[in-house]
Amino acid sequence: MPSLFRRRPSLALRVLLAALAALLLLFVDQRGAALEPLRGVALTLLHPLQQAVDLPFRAWSWGADGLRERQALREEILALREDRRYLRLQVQTLAAVQAENQRLRALVDSVVRTPQPLRVLIASTVRVSLDPYVGQVQVDKGLMHGVFIGQPVLDADGVIGQVLHVAAQTSQVLLITDARHAIPVKSIRSGVRAIASGRGPPGALDLPFLPNHVDIEVGDVLVTSGLDDVFPPNLPVAMVSTINRIGEGEFAEVQATPSGHLDRIQEVLLVWPPEAAVEPPVDPSAGPADSPVQ
Amino acid sequence: MSAAAAQPGPLAVVLSVVAACLLTMAPVPAWATHWQPPWLALVLAYWCLAQPDQVGISVGFTLGLLHDVLTGTPLGQHALALSVLAAIVLWVHQRIRVLPLPQQALLLVPALALHQALLALVTGSGGRPLAMTMLLPALSGALVWPWLFLTLRDLRRGSRF
Fold first, then answer.
1. pLDDT by position in tens, chain B (length 161)
2. Rounded Cα–Cα distance for residues A104 and A117 (Å)
């Protein structure tokens, strides 16, 4: 039985202590990664809980798949086979184009910069809804799959964010539309560099600090500039949607729409940066055979 | 009421907390995201009313940390908000627990609103814009309170885990 007369610190004192502890935690957590291992361990321990949330949906789709008719499956297989044939054909033409590109590059400058194929891993988003005010999703790959903090995350159409926290089997991805996120970009058309920072979901990106006279137009495609050592260069990020040039000598208000489908993320690509840039030796035979002599 | 019924083990609390976590993380349709009740806050408020000697500020703090880890929010954000909520409920628990359910729910609105405001202030300090929609969960929380209260009371009374 709790005694009525048990001595405890007053309510005000206790809540003050708790609030101070929480603020201290917040402070430490915001400035640096000191608490990151702790969070990783806690997330890993809580993994079963998250699995439990996901379970009904998994069971549902499992059951739905099982009940789908044989005929439908057969048709799907046929369609996929056709797709595969078509894609293989495309890959072959791509290889030819790539070889040609390489030859032309060798012509232009002796430095052959082969676009190294990026190592990628496909991850699915775990079906947990997070804070609607935070641009963040959770994916089902983690430390065990080699995921690391700051790793770029793409979907089929462009950059969608980077890894924020990692646990053993899951990780949390900060989207480029989150107010905490900024990504250096450049315009493909004009080469103008800028920073694209998030405005909070669901949202567009802001391109602050661009002078009024800057060469940027609505419809310009923005790609990663690779200046941050986080994102590999030349990945599509967004397309300029509105430009508002006000006054003289002021900054233009430029906004862009993300290329990736941030509002319906299902499968994402986790990307590893190219391995310590090994320059392939220049193949002399790759040069044009029919180049005019002298 | 026997002493055993008045003092069920911590299992009932743990069970309800797990359920609250599941509800927090359960996917909801897009229109409902702004209306999602703060389940952990409500469960905490209930146990602070029902067992103020066992559940208080430190439990609130721990649940807050749990919430922060689960949803990837800055560590300490929910810990702060839930600690303060626990303190408020403890402060008024003797007056509130005797009221009929609708009035309890009504009195919970300002407490939950403060809870939401604290959350918003902490995120706001991280550079995110503040929005009035952040107060909606206080209303939805009050709406589900009577239902939640009865469920948890049955859990507490019916079980002597």
1. 444 444 556 888 888 998 898 888 877 777 787 888 999 999 999 999 998 888 889 999 999 999 988 888 888 899 999 999 999 999 998 888 889 999 999 999 999 999 999 988 887 665 556 677 788 889 999 999 999 999 998 888 876 54
2. 19
Q: In what order do the strands lie in the sheet with A158-166?
A: A119-124, A267-272, A152-155, A158-166, A171-175, A136-139
Alpha-carbon gap, residue B2 to A291, rounded angstroms: 99
8-state DSSP, A284: G
B63: chain A residues, CB-CB within 8 Å: none
* DSSP-assigned beta bridge partners for residue A174: A136, A162
Given phi > 0 = left and psi -120 to 50 = alpha, else beta, which region is A9? beta
CB contact, 8 Å: A58 with chain B? Answer: no
Measured distance CA(A34)–CA(A24) in Å, rounded = 12
From A150, A147, A152, A185, select the one nearest A167 (Cα to Cα): A147
- Let me know: does A268 contact A122? Beta carbons within 8 Å: yes
User: Which A positions 31-50 lie with beta carbon below 8 A of chain B?
Assistant: 35, 38-39, 42-43, 46, 49-50
pLDDT above 90 covers what percent of chain A? 20
Tracing tokens 């661009």 back to the chain, one arrives at A210
Cβ neighbours of residue B64 closer than 8 Å, sequence gap 6 or more: A22, B40, B76, B77, B78, B79, B80, B81, B82, B83
Tokens read off for A61: 């789709």
Nearest to A23 among B80, B86, B127 (CB): B80
**Euclidean distance between CA atoms B106 and A4, whole angstroms:** 29
Distance from CA of B46 to the nearest CA of A (A): 18
The rounded distance, in Å, linking the Cα atoms of A21 and B79 is 9
Return the exposure string of A126-135: e unless at least 16 CB atoms fall within 10 Å of the residue's CB, then b.
bbbbbbbbbb
* Residue pair A263/A202 in contact by the 8 Å Cβ criterion: yes
Token pair of A66 as six digits = 């099982």
Strand (E) or helix (H) holding A160 = strand A158-166
Q: What is the ipTM of this complex?
A: 0.82
The whole-number average pLDDT for the span A130-134 is 69
Are B3 and A138 inside 8 Å of each other by CB? no
User: pTM for this structure?
Assistant: 0.68
What does DSSP assign to residue A145? G
Per DSSP, A89 falls in state H
